[in-house]
């Protein structure tokens, strides 16, 4: 069919009249069935007419040539005779050009030259030169080969371009460029009509113009002849020849691409064949183009090209194609107009709604969003005129019904989430999205919600949903993957309907999400990489909280699917089968750490891990690193189960595989420190279970006789030898220290078990160990390990001082935790070697330790600011996890210090009171043991040796035994939730409910209800809390029948013990661990509040009236009175202290109103009771306290007779400054002073604020002038002479020590002069005041 398409001559014979194609019968066209194609109907028509298809290309007649005889511009309908030859024709044109140029003036030549340069550009000279050179070269070749036929060039372009080529005499290089330009002009004047349009001129020059490329998809109007020797040549392209378009339409149109002019080298290689002349297709039908008047065309050439065709898809293009009869910008076509362009500079750069992203998640600057190409795929949104997608666009398209579009947007959300997560950390701030700083948490929730909606989909949509969850859950905090033993988020509080945290993870719909993950893993519906991401997601959720871990374990078929897909893979593995994933075993370990119930549920699938123990890594079908990781992960999982006293029977059931594995670990083939550490930790856990088989579940799951029979003590020694070999041959020094820590703990566990089960308290085992340990720690390798750990620990401890950048601080804290574990393990081994007969000082240590270094190190640890920083608002929720080894180290050192002869009672008690405040949840057993030892030391002999006059009645009911149950309960208030200790004990394995610490926020919010640790400095007053809540106190419900102490007796011992704690700490210069002023004040207020809502039948029964109780309270409050030698800095306030007792729902102001009301009803001017009313009246507390005291209870003011020196305050200036400005309180001051009933401290405070509101030298400004005059007149008119004198002569300083009475009532001469002048300007009779000032 293509061969039948030929070009016909435009000037051929006359056209025949159109024939009627209708039927001869009806006159209507015959029916055309749509089932037949146009080609089929065409073939049938040819058969019916009997016309055969042309087999030869018809001869194409040459088109019309330029006439010779007419005048300029004359075009006739006849074909003029052609020149005799092409050379004659060209010579004739040259002569005419010369004559025309010669007849021009210089100005005309210059004008013609400028016109041509303006139309054709500055490169027209090069074009003409190349055309001339090509023509001359072709002429020479024709002369050399006379047998060659005429040029095969077809079309008009070569015939027209030849006449305008300059002669050899008039080249631009010769300076006669005017002749060449005139030749071009003359040729255009004589060109046929179809070539005289500027577009035709442009097409004539396009084959040789380097600045007008033609589209490779454009087609010529004529087909060139098919010559076998024809070749295409391309010119060398320079950077100036390349043009980069700034933008492209959504569907780019085919644009012309012109080949650059051939070079001399190209033309010398053969004939250059023209591909024809390109004519652009007009977008409108030919019938719609008006035909110009012939005369106008003959006499006029349009030199201004029409406007370019509009881009396809634009509103103008749509109008021209579909609505050609409608004027541009017609209101009826407003719907096709583009939305109004928005100036990018006007968009707020920080607005998340204006921010646009490309498909990689990178923000697009506003100034580029309107200029980027539209073919990049960034305009598929509603706005359409700006590149990129806003967050609203992305969230909307993430719910698209088109899977590919939805998957693309979900992937974009995942990439944005990755950048948001990295930008949260200071170290990666540059990788974040600065425009969205501060919005990460909220956006994370929205992105997670989008992923949750798509998690149930299959294919790419489901895969991208998994990617979103991985980025928002795992990648958001990628540094948390290896952290175990702590919850990252607070679990649901009892009785609440939602999470108490603002984190995004607790808001996940786990009831819907977890079954979807289970199905995806069970069906393997996603690629293996995404399935592995699902395991990581589950692990991170299990880390987040114990509630989530239980939800994961409770999801139907989830754990079996994980085991079948990632653990129980085919054996032996084939090339196509998946390999086991150690991350799946880590997930099981995390689930077991969460709770005892989880660990019990994982006992059945634990058997499948034996496949990794039965075969050593050296003979495993899996790669050696993978086999080693699988084995170490399995051992770590078994150790977690053993910490609950579970699954320890497996060592009996599968003893042979474990024995072979042990041989491999001790051999030279094992080079994994992690594997040695995991096996040593598992041996330790099993020996703890065997120490008391009654505590395992089920009981007698493993026996101590089996431990002895398996010679695990010898095995530990073999592991120590292997560790020495690994340390000598290289490896991480710190990693080797961690291995030694696990080996020391395993050896200590054996000695502790032998003490309980061995003959004579394990004396034989202990002596054997001591004999080797002396050499090992004296000059051996293990002594070097301990000394190196101590030195590194002290260095790291001194570097850990500021807690601003937690990304850096947490790594240093992790280093401290690792080194602290090693040191504490050595101390545990030392304690296991001590004889069990007594707990007193030893005559000689079992083996040498650097005791001086240990003492200094322990003191620095206890006083380090890290303990308060880990509970700060900016601290990570898991920071306190790394302080757990430090608390264990302090407990171990406290036990070591108790056995050292140089430690006195006062020193050890101070150490004990300090360590008790550094314990963390899980250390309850150690804290209770310390408290019991402390109670044994506080005896009558203890006070007599220190010359303390303590009434004997204190010991009538048992002394410390009265309050010991309350103190023990303050350490462990919960009876159900037991957190496992840092090291398992025979008692803990049957009691613990979880092996993970609560998050820092949970400790802060539930302190006192579920978690007693860490203790606050006022922990010694906790028995008073139980007295105030005796009806609901769990301690009173569990007290033995022999306990019969009264409230007064409990209060006496409590206050005495509190005094002992404070005195011991102060003597050892540990004041920071003692109660501050506010804690002491609130503790004494509790004593008075014991009478709240109690029947008042006999005042002698009131606890605060007891002489001993009053004396002990005065002893506690004396250091905080104004008569103390030096002021104490303000460290806290009563409102913050009261929260620990009242809870967040009861404000301290309510407690204070009850306190004042109780004073009003029963105090009878009790001086200490009255003194406790004053602290909330200082100016750093809210105005309501002063209004309530001075206004609502003004009638009790006369009973508050506290001397100035007995006022409870650390700095009296807190009552004086800033000056009172409330009119109601000032009026109360004035009324109380004028009544003359105020005395002592309260009178001084009232006089101070009245005088400062009157005198300009005390006010410091000129405000309140009117109120000052009124106050002065009221004092002068109604006050007695003493009151007026005190107000008139009052003076005070705002900086430095405050002036107290009577020095504050002695105004200097300058102040009197200023006040006298001010009074003189006041209108009215103030004679009394003036008389005093002039006296």
UniProtKB/TrEMBL annotation:
Domain RPAP1/MINIYO-like TPR repeats: 1076-1240
Domain RPAP1 N-terminal as annotated: residue spans: 91-136
Pfam families with a match to the protein in the record: RPAP1_C, RPAP1_N, TPR_RPAP1
Keywords carried by this UniProt record: Nucleus, Transcription
Entry keyword Nucleus: yes
Compartmental location: Nucleus
Disordered: region residues: 1-181, 195-234, 297-318
Presence of the UniProt keyword Transcription in the record: yes
Primary location recorded for the protein, binned into one broad class: nucleus
Gene Ontology annotations of biological process type: transcription by RNA polymerase II
Positions of transmembrane segments: none
Sequence ranges of Basic and acidic residues compositional bias: 41-55, 87-103, 127-143
InterPro entries noted in UniProt: RPAP1/Rba50, RPAP1_C, RPAP1_N, TPR_RPAP1/MINIYO-like
Chain ranges of the RPAP1 C-terminal domain: 355-420
Comp. bias intervals (Polar residues): 7-17, 206-225
Family note: Belongs to the RPAP1 family.
Protein name, per record: RNA polymerase II-associated protein 1 C-terminal domain-containing protein
Record organism: Jaapia argillacea MUCL 33604
């Amino acid at each position: 069919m293509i061969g039948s398409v030929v070009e016909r001559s435009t000037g051929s014979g006359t056209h025949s009249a159109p024939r009627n194609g209708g039927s001869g019968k009806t006159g209507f066209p015959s029916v055309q069935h749509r089932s037949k194609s146009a080609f089929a109907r065409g073939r049938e028509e040819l058969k019916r007419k009997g016309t055969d298809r042309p087999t030869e290309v018809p001869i194409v007649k040459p088109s019309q040539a330029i006439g010779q005889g007419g005048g300029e511009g004359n075009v006739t309908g006849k074909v003029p005779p052609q020149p005799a030859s092409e050379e004659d024709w060209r010579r004739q044109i040259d002569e005419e050009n010369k004559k025309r140029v010669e007849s021009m003036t210089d100005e005309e030549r210059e004008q013609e030259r400028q016109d041509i340069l303006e139309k054709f550009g500055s490169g027209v000279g090069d074009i003409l030169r190349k055309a001339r050179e090509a023509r001359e070269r072709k002429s020479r070749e024709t002369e050399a080969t006379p047998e060659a036929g005429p040029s095969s060039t077809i079309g008009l372009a070569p015939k027209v371009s030849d006449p305008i080529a300059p002669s050899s005499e008039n080249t631009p290089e010769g300076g006669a460029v005017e002749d060449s330009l005139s030749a071009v002009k003359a040729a255009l004047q004589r060109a046929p009509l179809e070539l005289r349009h500027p577009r035709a001129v442009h097409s004539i020059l396009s084959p040789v113009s380097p600045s007008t490329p033609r589209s490779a998809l454009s087609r010529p109007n004529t087909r060139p002849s098919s010559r076998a020797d024809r070749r295409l040549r391309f010119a060398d392209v320079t950077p100036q020849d390349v043009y980069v378009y700034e933008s492209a339409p959504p569907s780019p149109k085919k644009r012309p691409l012109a080949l650059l002019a051939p070079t001399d080298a190209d033309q010398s290689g053969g004939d250059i064949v023209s591909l024809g002349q390109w004519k652009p297709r007009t977008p409108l039908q030919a019938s719609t183009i008006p035909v110009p008047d012939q005369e106008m065309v003959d006499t006029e050439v349009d030199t201004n090209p029409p406007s370019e065709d509009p881009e396809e898809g634009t509103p103008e293009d749509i109008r021209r194609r579909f609505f050609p009869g409608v004027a541009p910008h017609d209101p009826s076509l407003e719907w096709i107009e583009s939305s109004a362009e928005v100036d990018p500079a006007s968009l707020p750069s920080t607005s998340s709604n204006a921010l646009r992203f490309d498909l990689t998640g990178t923000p697009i600057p506003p100034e580029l969003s309107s200029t980027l190409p539209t073919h990049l795929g960034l305009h598929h949104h509603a706005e359409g005129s700006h590149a990129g997608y806003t967050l609203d666009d992305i969230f909307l398209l993430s719910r698209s019904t088109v899977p590919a579009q939805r998957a693309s947007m979900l992937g974009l959300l995942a990439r944005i989430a990755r950048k948001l997560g990295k930008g949260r950390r200071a170290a990666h701030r540059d990788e974040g999205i600065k425009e969205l700083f501060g919005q990460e948490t909220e956006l994370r929730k929205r992105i997670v919600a989008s992923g949750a909606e798509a998690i149930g989909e299959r294919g790419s949509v489901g895969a991208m949903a998994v990617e979103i969850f991985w980025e928002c859950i795992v990648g958001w905090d990628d540094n948390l993957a290896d952290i175990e033993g702590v919850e990252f988020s607070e679990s649901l509080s009892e009785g609440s309907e939602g999470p108490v945290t603002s984190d995004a993870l607790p808001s996940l719909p786990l009831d819907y999400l977890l079954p979807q993950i289970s199905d995806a893993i069970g069906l393997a519906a996603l690629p293996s990489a995404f399935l592995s991401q699902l395991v990581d997601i589950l692990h991170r959720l299990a880390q987040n909280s114990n509630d989530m871990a239980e939800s994961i374990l409770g999801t139907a078929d989830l754990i079996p699917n994980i085991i079948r897909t990632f653990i129980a893979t085919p054996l032996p593995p084939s090339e196509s089968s998946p390999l086991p994933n150690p991350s799946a075993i880590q997930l099981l370990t995390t689930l077991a750490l969460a709770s005892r119930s989880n660990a019990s549920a994982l006992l059945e699938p634990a058997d499948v891990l034996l496949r990794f123990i039965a075969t050593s890594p050296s003979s495993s079908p899996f790669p050696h690193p993978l086999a080693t990781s699988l084995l170490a992960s399995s051992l770590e999982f078994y150790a977690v189960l053993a910490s609950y006293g579970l699954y320890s029977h497996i060592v009996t059931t599968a003893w042979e595989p474990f024995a072979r594995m042990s041989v491999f670990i001790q051999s030279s083939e094992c080079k994994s420190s992690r594997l040695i550490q995991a096996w040593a930790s598992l041996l330790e856990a099993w020996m703890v279970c065997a120490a008391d088989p009654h505590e395992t579940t089920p009981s007698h799951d493993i026996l101590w006789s089996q431990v002895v029979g398996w010679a695990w003590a010898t095995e530990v020694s073999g592991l120590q030898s292997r560790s020495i070999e690994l340390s000598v041959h290289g490896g991480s020094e710190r990693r080797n220290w961690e291995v030694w820590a696990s080996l020391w703990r395993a050896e200590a566990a054996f000695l502790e078990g032998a003490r309980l089960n061995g003959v004579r308290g394990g004396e034989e085992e202990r002596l054997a160990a001591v004999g080797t340990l002396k050499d090992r720690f004296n000059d051996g390798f293990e002594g070097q390990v301990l000394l190196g750990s101590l030195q590194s620990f002290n260095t790291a401890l001194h570097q850990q001082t500021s807690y601003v950048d937690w990304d850096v601080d947490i790594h240093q804290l992790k280093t401290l935790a690792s080194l602290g574990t090693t040191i504490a393990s050595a101390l545990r081994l030392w304690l296991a070697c001590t004889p069990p007969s007594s707990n007193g000082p030893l005559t000689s240590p079992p083996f040498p330790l650097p005791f001086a270094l240990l003492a200094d190190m322990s003191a620095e640890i206890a006083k380090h600011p890290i303990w308060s920083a880990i509970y700060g608002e900016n601290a990570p929720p898991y920071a306190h996890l790394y302080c757990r080894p430090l608390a264990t180290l302090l407990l171990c050192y406290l036990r070591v210090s108790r056995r050292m002869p140089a430690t006195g009672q006062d020193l050890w008690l101070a150490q004990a009171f300090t360590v008790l405040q550094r314990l963390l949840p899980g250390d309850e057993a150690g804290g209770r043991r310390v408290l019991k030892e402390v109670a044994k030391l506080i005896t009558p002999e203890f006070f007599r040796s220190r010359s303390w006059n303590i009434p004997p009645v204190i010991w009538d009911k048992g002394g410390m035994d009265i309050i010991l149950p309350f103190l023990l309960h303050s350490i462990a208030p919960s009876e159900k939730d037991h957190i496992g200790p840092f090291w398992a004990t025979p008692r803990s394995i049957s009691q613990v409910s979880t092996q993970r610490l609560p998050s820092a926020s949970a400790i802060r919010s539930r302190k006192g209800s579920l978690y007693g640790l860490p203790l606050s400095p006022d922990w010694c007053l906790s028995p008073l809390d139980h007295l105030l809540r005796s009806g609901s106190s769990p301690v009173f419900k569990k007290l033995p029948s022999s306990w019969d102490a009264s409230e007064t007796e409990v209060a006496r011992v409590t206050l005495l013990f509190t005094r002992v704690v404070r005195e011991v700490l102060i003597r050892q210069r540990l004041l920071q661990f003692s109660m501050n002023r506010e804690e002491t004040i609130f503790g004494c207020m509790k004593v008075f509040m014991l009478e709240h809502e109690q029947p008042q039948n006999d005042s002698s029964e009131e606890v605060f009236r007891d002489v001993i109780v009053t004396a002990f309270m005065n002893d506690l409050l004396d250091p905080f009175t104004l008569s103390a030698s030096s002021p104490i800095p303000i460290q806290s306030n009563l409102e913050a202290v009261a929260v620990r007792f009242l809870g967040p729902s009861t404000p301290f102001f309510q407690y204070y109103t009850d306190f004042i009301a109780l004073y009003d009803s029963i105090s009878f001017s009790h001086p200490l009771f009255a003194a406790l009313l004053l602290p909330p009246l200082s100016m750093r507390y809210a105005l309501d306290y002063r209004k309530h005291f001075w206004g609502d209870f003004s009638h009790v003011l006369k009973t508050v007779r506290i001397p100035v020196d007995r006022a409870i305050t650390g700095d009296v200036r807190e009552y004086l400054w800033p000056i009172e400005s409330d009119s109601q309180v000032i009026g109360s001051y004035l009324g109380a002073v004028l009544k003359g009933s105020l005395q002592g401290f309260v009178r001084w405070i009232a006089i101070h604020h009245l005088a400062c509101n009157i005198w300009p030298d005390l006010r410091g400004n000129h405000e309140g002038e009117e109120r000052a005059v009124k106050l002065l007149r009221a004092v002068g008119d109604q006050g007695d002479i003493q009151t007026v004198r005190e107000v008139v002569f009052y003076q005070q300083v705002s900086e430095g020590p405050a002036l107290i009475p009577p020095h504050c009532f002695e105004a200097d001469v300058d102040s009197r002069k200023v006040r006298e002048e001010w009074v003189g300007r006041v209108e009215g009779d103030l004679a009394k005041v003036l008389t005093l000032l002039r006296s």
